[in-house]
Amino acid sequence: MTITEDTSTDTPEQAEFRAEVRAFLAANAKPRQEDSPFAINAHTSEAEAREAFETGCRWQRTLFENNLAGLTYPVEYGGRGGHPWHETIYREEAARYDVSSGFIAATMAMLLPTLMKHASDEQKAYYVPRMLSAEISICQLFSEPGAGSDLASLACRAVRDGDEFVVTGQKVWNSAAQFCNWGMLLTRTDPDAPKHQGITFVLVDMSSPGIEVRPLVQPTGASHFNEVFLSEVRVPVANVVGEINGGWAPARTVLSNESAFIGGGSGQSLFETLRLLAERFGVLDDPVIRQELAVAYSREKVLGFVGDRIMSAIRRREVPPVDPSILKLFIAESKVHSGNLGMRIAGPAGQAGGSEESRWVQFELINRFGISIGGGTNEVQRNNLAERALGLPREPGYDKTKPWRDIPRS
Ligand SMILES: Cc1cc2nc3c(=O)[nH]c(=O)nc-3n(C[C@H](O)[C@H](O)[C@H](O)COP(=O)(O)OP(=O)(O)OC[C@H]3O[C@@H](n4cnc5c(N)ncnc54)[C@H](O)[C@@H]3O)c2cc1C
Fold this sequence. Notes:
Order of helices and strands: HHHHHEEEEEEEEHHHHHHH
Shape: globular
Number of domains: 3
Strand content: 5-15%
Low-confidence stretches: none
Largest sheet: 4 strands, mixed
Bound molecules: flavin-adenine dinucleotide
C-alpha cells in the first residue's frame, strides 16, 4: 500500500513528531537504495534468512530504545501511548529508508493486540515490552498435519500437572520457528468438550526441553517453514492467555489480525512494476493490457483504502469497521491477477527468459498462490465473510457440538 504524504496538514504536535522521526531516521537508517523494480526479495540460503531475521530484530530494538516502538501501545507496557497518526507519520517517513522489523513485524501485529484484549495485566507487563524490544520473538504454532482450515480440530494435547501443563503433539508450517525464542501455541486441554471449547492458548519458551524444530527445506535452499515436535514439554499454567479451555477467543483475535496484516501488503506497488514491464515489452498501448493494468491499479487503491480503515481501528483497539477477511481475500486474488498479468505481458520470455524482468515474472507467477493459503485459505475467508459479515447460516457441520474425542480423525 502506498501512502500519500501531505505534511501541510500536520498539526504542530504532528509536525514536531515528524521532525523527531526524520532526525532519528537520518541518524540511524540507510536511505532506500534505488533498487531495480524487478529485484527479487527472496532468501536463497538458511544463513541469509537468519541474517534477515536478526537484522529485523536489531532494527526493532533500535526503535524501542528511541521510544518509537509500539507507538499506540500504553507507556506502562513500553509503548509511546500515541495515536494512529503517529504510526502513519512514522510509516510515511520510514518509507524512504531501507528499514524493517522483518518477520517479527507479522507476529507483533497478530499477538500484541491479542495480548491487550485477552491477557492479564501481569502478562501484558511481561510480554508487551519484551516483544516491542525484540527480546522475545514469537512464532505461530497453530497448524497441525490434521488441522489447518479446520484449526479447531487440533490434537496437540496439554495435560495439567499442578502449576504446569505437559504438552505433547506436532505442529507444522510454522514460519520462522527455527529463529524465534517463543511460540504462541494452541493445545487441546479438554478432549470431552466440543472442539472449539476444549482449546487453551499458551505462550511457550522455545528452549523448553522436549521441543524439536525441524526446518522444511524449500527448493530455494532456505526454510520458510518448520515442523515443531513437542514431547512432554512443561509449560507454566501462568503462560495461559485468556481462559483455560477458552483459547479459541484469543486464537480468533490472532487470525483476524493476521488477515489484516497480510492484507496490508508489503508497501510496494506491484502496479508500477507491471506498468514498467509493459513499457519494456512494448505493449503499453495494447488495449487489453491497458484494461488489465487499470484493474491492477484499482485493486491496489482499494486495498490501500480498506487497509488503512482496518489498521487504524486495530491501532485504536476497536473492532474493525470491515471484516479483515475481505482484505486478505482481496489481496490474495490481486496477487494471482498480477502474476497472470505479468505472464501475459512478457509472453514466452516470461517463462523462458533469463533477463531480470523475466526472472521477476517467473518469481511472481510461482509465488502468486502462497498468500491464498497462509493465514487461512481463500475458501476459509469466504466462509468467514458469509457467516460473520453477511450473517448467512453457518456452514453445516456434524461435529460442532460432539465431544472432540468422538470426532473421527484420519
Ligand atoms: C506462507 C505460509 C505461511 C504459514 N505460516 C504458518 C505459521 O506460521 N503457523 C501456522 O501455524 N501455520 C502456518 N501456515 C499454515 C496455514 O495456516 C495452513 O496451510 C492453512 O490454514 C490451510 O491449512 P492446510 O494446509 O492444512 O489445508 P487444508 O485445510 O487441508 O485445505 C485443503 C483445501 O481444502 C479447502 N477447504 C478446507 N476446508 C474447507 C471448507 N470448510 N470449505 C471450503 N474449502 C475448504 C482449503 O481452502 C484448501 O484449498 C502457513 C501457510 C503458508 C502457505
